[in-house]
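ugh ok fine here u go
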Amino acid sequence: MNITGGEPMLRKDIRDIVRILDTKTNRLEISSNGRFDDKLVAIAKEFPNITIRVSIEGLPALNDEVRGITNGFDHALRAILRLKEMGVSDIGFAMTISGENCRDLMDVYSLASNLDVELANAVVHNSFYFHKEDNQIKNRDEVEQVMQNFMTALLTSPRRRIKRRVKDWFRAYLNLGLLHHVQGKERPITCGAGTDTFFVDPYGKILACNGSKEPLIMGDLTTASFEEIWHSKQASKIREEVAGCQRACWMTGTAVPAMRRRPWEPIKWVLGNKIRIIQGKPISL
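structure:
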């Protein structure tokens, strides 16, 4: 489960939300911008097994400009350092690649590697959830080259711990899907939104995902149980819409479950491209 936003730490009841959801899942993640680092630390003290990703848009000057938060990078870094000192094991940064910040991607990866923390990443999308339909990357050639360099860096990960190194290898495949999205190509693996995963909005609506142009509502938890919603005719109708969806979104929430559903696809791609790198060849896209 992932608690996302907006900024989850703005909620006065965030501790209660974490306390309840912590009993419902083996892995509970909070996605935060790190501005309220003291609140993140307090949550982690009470729930030490929690996963935390702190979102940044690049190095300090660019991050603070894009996010509009004074000293935002300082708070984000402070949150990571404090959580690391506490011994919280599953922590890291998250970055959404755009035309404005692509030049900082490799430096952010270097920072995460040297701190021995994770780096999750995405690319800009359009959807009702982001209140955007006009996001576009104008310097596409530059972004594509940066992403290809990043994928090669992930496949040759310098991380000391083998678990993090292997995760980097498969994150390279995740970035293949992101690159395809930038290029307007199909997803590497079909979407399972509304079947493998679902999205709950703050008002109790169950949606297939948060990447659609309009909300794909399967039901309402204020009027029906989850089981009733999940097996309803409305849910079946939404799944049919997902099957015909042409948006080719590739976001972690739906991409990772798709990769787990068909693990031979990323495994074959990773092994093939590691061999190509050893042979001095460019990776296959």
